[in-house]
Each structure stands twice: as structure tokens, then as C-alpha cells.
Write a structure and sequence with these properties.
Strand order of the largest sheet: 2-1-4-8-7
Oligomer: single chain
Radius of gyration: 18 Å
Structural class: alpha/beta
Order of helices and strands: EHEHHHEHEEEEEHHHHHH
Strand content: 5-15%
Largest sheet: 5 strands, mixed
Number of helices: 11
Distance between the termini: 21 Å
CATH superfamily of the largest domain: Collagenase (Catalytic Domain)
Number of strands: 8
Number of domains: 2
Length: about 250
């Protein structure tokens, strides 16, 4: 039984951990608290090298890790100045193992779920197609929730990527969110989207649901516990009513 849930802030992102915690308290039978950034709270001198070892090297290579001096120094800077980090994918299961090892001994039990909101992109290897897939969350202890993964993991409409490429060719950078929203049909989330916090609530609840019940994702497309692979599905599951399918609405007192 999960008796306590601790969320960890991701201060360089749009995510509001305190608002997520308030939402969660109304739905679960557990004490919900919030702490500052996990990597600041529990980081140790080996953390930069551990993250270097968890780096995905190629979308199509299972092997991870590059611990050359320059890479480790990059990870050290990313820990000290997370707002400067980006463009790297990490093995989510490996990161989960790293963070689990940093938890205090008396908080590692499955009765106390830890949910770091991460400013890193995480992925898992797909044996079925031999490539890495970005993820919004990785279930288990701790339950990882990637804020940039919310924008990058579920696929956007094809037109989005075309507009992005066109803008990059013309101006050398990514187009502003307003441009993409005006030019591309369909609904999707982009970097620093003001809907980030609301969308993340369901992904945090998924980490609790997994530890409390042993079930992973819901098959009902409109449920907060669903795991859609495309952005319109994320909008439907996380930002539209009703919040839950009938089965999970009963479970979470909605």
C-alpha cells in the first residue's frame, strides 16, 4: 500500500509541482508532499558520471554511455545549471536505477513513492523495432516524469515537423510557439506550454496507480491513465472531460 507520495520540483520548467500535488491529494489515499529538485536534494559526487553512462548514443544502438572527460564535464554543468542542458536522451530505466540508489534508506520502500519531475529527456529501448523511444514517464520506484518528454515523446502532426524544418532553413532556429499553432492544424503541446502542469497530473497519477495496483496504463483513450503515442491523444486524455473512464473514476473518487 502506498502511504506517502513525494513530488520533486523541476524549477527550470513550466511544471508546477505544488499544483500537481494539490490535485493528487484530492484523489489518492496517501500523504502527498513536495520537495525541491531531486538532483539537488540527493545528488552526489558520482552523479555526473552516472548520467554520462546513461546517455543514449544513437537512436538505433542499444548500448549507452560516454564517460569521456568532456561529456562528464557537460553533465556537471547540467547539474549546476540545468537551464543550459538539452539535446540529450537518457536511458530511463538506467536513470531510475541511479535515482533509486540516491534515496534515503528509510524511504526506499514501496509504501513511499518518489516522483521526480525531470528536466531531462528519457527513453526506453524497443526490442520490437530496435530503436529508442522517448517517454513521458517511467513507472516504478522512483516514478520518473519527464517534462520535456511531454512535448517530445508523443508524435505531433506531420505538418508541425515540416514547418519546423522550413523555419530552421529560413532563420536558423525553431519557430515561436504562436507561429506553429497558427500554421499547423491539430492540437499539440510545445515547449513551455502553459497547459504543461495540467497535462502532467495524469502522468504523475500513473506512477501512483502502478505502485498501488500493479497495473500500468488504461486502454480507454480518454482516461488520465492512458498512454497515447500522439499529441492529439494526450490532449484528449489529459485536458478534456471526463478525466477518467468509469472504472478509474470510481477508484479515484471523481
Amino acid at each position: 500500500m502506498v502511504e506517502a507520495v513525494t513530488l520533486y520540483r523541476a524549477p527550470t520548467t513550466e511544471a508546477d509541482a505544488d499544483a500537481v500535488a494539490d490535485w493528487l491529494r484530492e484523489r489518492v489515499d496517501a500523504a502527498v508532499t513536495v520537495r525541491d529538485r531531486f538532483l539537488s536534494e540527493f545528488g552526489d559526487e558520482d552523479l555526473a558520471e552516472s548520467f554520462a553512462e546513461a546517455r543514449v548514443l544513437s537512436p538505433y544502438e542499444r548500448e549507452t554511455g560516454n564517460t569521456m572527460v568532456g561529456i562528464v564535464r557537460y553533465e556537471e554543468r547540467a547539474l549546476e545549471h540545468p537551464e543550459r542542458a538539452g539535446g540529450v536522451i537518457y536511458d530511463g530505466l538506467q536513470v531510475q536505477e541511479i535515482l533509486r540508489g540516491l534515496l534515503p534508506d528509510d524511504e526506499r520502500g514501496l509504501d513511499h513513492l518518489h516522483v521526480p519531475l525531470l528536466d531531462r529527456v528519457i527513453g526506453t529501448w524497443g526490442d520490437h523495432d530496435g530503436r529508442w523511444h522517448k517517454r513521458v514517464n517511467v513507472l516504478g520506484q522512483p516514478g520518473l516524469v519527464s517534462v520535456p518528454g511531454l512535448y517530445e515523446a508523443p508524435a505531433k502532426p506531420e505538418q508541425y515537423y515540416r514547418e519546423q524544418q522550413k523555419h530552421a532553413l529560413l532563420s536558423g532556429g525553431a519557430p515561436p510557439r504562436e507561429v506553429l499553432e497558427n500554421e499547423v492544424e491539430g492540437e499539440f503541446l510545445v515547449d513551455d506550454d502553459p497547459r504543461t502542469t495540467d497535462a502532467l497530473k495524469g502522468y504523475v497519477l500513473q506512477t501512483y496507480h502502478y505502485l498501488a495496483t500493479g497495473e500500468d496504463f488504461c486502454d480507454e483513450e480518454g482516461c488520465r491513465l492512458a498512454n497515447p503515442h500522439r499529441q492529439p491523444g494526450v490532449i484528449r486524455a489529459q485536458l478534456r472531460d471526463p478525466e477518467f473512464c468509469p472504472e478509474h473514476a470510481e477508484l479515484y473518487r471523481v
